[in-house]
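Model the whole thing, not chain by chain.
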Amino acid sequence: MERQNVPRLAALLLAGLGLLLFVSVAMARERACIPFHLKTEDGKIINPLTGENADQPYSPRQTCGACHNYDEITKGYHFQQGWDRISDDFGKKMDKPWVLSDGMLGKF
Amino acid sequence: MAKKKNTSPDEIDITIFEWVGGGPTDPKQIGVPFCGGCHPGGGGLEFDRDGKRYDQRLKAEPTLAQSLDGDYYKSKWDKSGVVEADCLLCHLPGYNFKERNKQLKMYNFKWAATAASGIGQVSGFVREDQQPTVQYNKRLFNEDGKIALDLAYPPPSENCNFCHGISDAKKRGFSWNDRRNHDVHNARGMSCNDCHPAIDNPALKVTKLQHQFAKGDENVSSVRDDLDNTIMTCRDCHSQGYMGAPRPTHLGVRPNHLEKLACETCHIPTLHIAGGEGFDVTTGAMVNYPVFNLKDLKNSPKQIGDYFDWHPRYQRIKRGQLAPVNALLGVFFTNLDKDGIYYPLFGRENKKAYEKIKDQLQPKNPMKPELHTNEQIKLMLTALTETLQGNKRFQQIKPYYHKGGKHYHLNDKGEVVVEDDHTHAGHVEGFNINHNVAPAALALGANGCGDCHSTEAHMFKGQIVTDMFGPPDGKPLTISSGRLFGCQPWAFYLNQFHQLYLSPYANILMLLVVFGLVLHYTGQGPKVADYYKSPPEIVWFPLSERWTHLFRMVSFLVLAFTGYIFFFNNITLLRMSFGTPQTAVVVHWVAGLIFIAASIASVALWGKYAKFAPYDKEWLAKKGGYIGGQEVEVPAGRLNAGQKIFFWLTGILTLITGVTGIFLIFKSSLPLTLSCVMSTIHGFFAVVFVASIIAHAYLGTIANPGTWQVLVHGKVSRSWAKKHHSEWYKEYVKQEEEEKP
């Protein structure tokens, strides 16, 4: 290998490594949740450091829902547990009038 | 749960508010979830059945709390707030589940997420009419007031287990990350999410965001059954090698076992923590019973989740296969109303009656009355008849006690009447067991068929509780596990005969036959006959008959060999000879069909000669000259009486094993009872068949030296024919004379 090529190659290698590092960090961060403000039920920011609304509990709907689709997420059956189908007449058909839904919210 | 619309307080069972915030609040139990603890929030914990937020609506219409609206009756939503979905219950490693339960039980609904995540500390409880306050942990916040949480995606199994560790321990003896109640997938580092990811399936119109987690087909649970079987099956992963799943060969396993049994049946032989045996609500509270230690009742586990080894019950599940389950036996009361419906009684209704008679009952443990005698049951039913009077939810008072597949009620004279329970309350359905999978070396069958098919094995003979406190002494009633597989009781006993007596003792029977023959041989010696003295010159068996015999003989040998492999499940021999069980099965029934065909041909050829004739009596009287070892002259036709008997015997045996065998070719599509019956009959008569063929072969070879040669050239000497088949020889000579020119 010719002498003058060595620094060039080194630079190239370094650049490559740097890129790899960047990509891997970027990939790792991509999935992570970013820092955010807690919010009250009414959507007001909670800042414990300044004391702003810091006596109130945080609201997941307002806080996480600011960036994530809270309504869509809570469609899952873990959240609904039959509530999305609950009705006073649900069990009439099967001669079990006390059954109001097919999930834990109403089945018993 | 309380209906939305009610006309009387009597109609209102547990309200949604109580559902969230109920349960015991003593220090020992306050961290244990009531219903709301395991519900992550959102849905019905946030919005009423009209789609309005509880807190806002109750603030706007405070009188709702005094109304009979099931969403608001006696509630404090205005003060407690609602339970929004607590994302961190699942996504935050180290989430404090006990704190959540405490907050909910103290009606601090909207504070629960803050307190349980550890983001802030909450003091003051709504249940105690205080206004809770929050103290945030400032060290979690950045300078700009933003919080940086180390959230987990996917949620760690530990978080799933806050709830599933409790509910599924009771339902099916489940635990995770538990060295003793181990799971092979867990041991390989898999997490809940690996099998139960969020469904992302356009065909089902479900997106990943919607948090619908892939599920199997649980028997009892019914929520979102439309999403059943969205999970990858054992077969999916283990045939594709997904996540490195090894491909099983199952070489030692009968093919029909792989069809008829769920994978779980063999691969989850034992659970190591106590699941629930059942529950009893007589006192008004739900009293859970951990599985019983039937061998030593006094040493039964104290509570669900205690370390204890037990084996499942087996039940045919939706997939049509037999699978391990755990049935929670219910002991409870209903009221048969005018509409013919048995309405389960509310906890408070039971409690009211029980409190009345508790002292008369004098149960050893007032928390566990375990009513089982008619006197006890009568007391409770009488008390219920009184306390339910005037209850607005019923038009007729007729309480029933449901327990152990029976129901009990009082007749007009006030006596207890016991009947089989065909109501919804008598229907026992097991919770599927599909976790805590054992490593392959611990699976049923790893040590051979005896793991299930033996006197000791749990699979058929293990005892399953059917009544937790049976009459007369309150001890559990049980039934043999195999009785629950879905065949008739008599078929079960027939099958037991097959497994416990026929299979183990068949080889003893064979040995006895051989021993008898050896005795005969040593006692009598080979028959001294003149078979070799004079040259064989007349044809006794023409080619067609010799070939028919040859076909029967060869196919019988194949049948006996493969049959032996099946009968004793000799895996080594099977692998050496056939490779896979499927091949052996096919070889067996193909040989069977050839044997049947050859047998039909033999009846056509020999049938007329095998008809009994008067002289056969003499032959039989002289026992065919078989005893004594000397050549005795006995009258006989072309076939002697012994051969005739043997011929018809093989005919009958062929008919029996043939017909049952043809059925068994289609074994996997037969109803269980039929296939049990068919295989027992087939096995039994096959053993008899083999034993008689051994005797036949003995007589045809060493007992009568030289006889076997007839199979080759079909010829015998004149002198021999004259002595042994006199009547036939006479005819033969006559015919010979006639044919002479």
